[in-house]
Amino acid sequence: MTTHVKVSDEQLQGFSDAVVAFWLAVPEDIYDTQIGEVPDWFGKAVQKDQDARNQQRTKRD
User: Half-sphere exposure (CA, 13 Å, Cβ side) for 5?
Assistant: First the structure.
């Protein structure tokens, strides 16, 4: 497969730096008491994960 996308070393380094900065800014631990409101899309995604996990547990039992 051929692509016409070109990325310079400088652009790649900038992207890498941004990814590292993002993960360094994410807290290692977070507790329920520290969370106010979460966005709807996030709450739905968490609920979907929990539902899937519960279904897997039900199948094993």
Answer: 5
